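Q: My labmate handed me this sequence with no annotations at all. I'd like to see what the chain might look like in three dimensions before we decide whether it's worth expressing. Could you predict it?
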Amino acid sequence: MYAVVRTGGHQYRVSVGDQLLVEKLPVPEGAHIELEEVLLVADDSGQVRIGTPLVEGARVRARVLAQEKGPKIRIFKYIPKERYRRRKGHRQQYTRLQVEEIVV
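A: Here is what I predict for the chain of 104 residues:
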């Protein structure tokens, strides 16, 4: 069984037991969370329920494993012959989730 959920502007295909890295959610580590924006649910028998836009009554229950930071991204702006140079860095914050149950 798997589902397609939407969170943080991205869509993820998840199954029970999967770990996924999503954009930061305001939830402490160890807490349980329900992802209610379920776009598609597929059974092991091959039956697929597609939402318009969401599948009614479906949700994915997950546990927050960690709040993490992604890799450092370097931004460098440069204009030749102008003495213009700007260096900047960015680290995106993520939440690591473990899917525990898909409720239909």
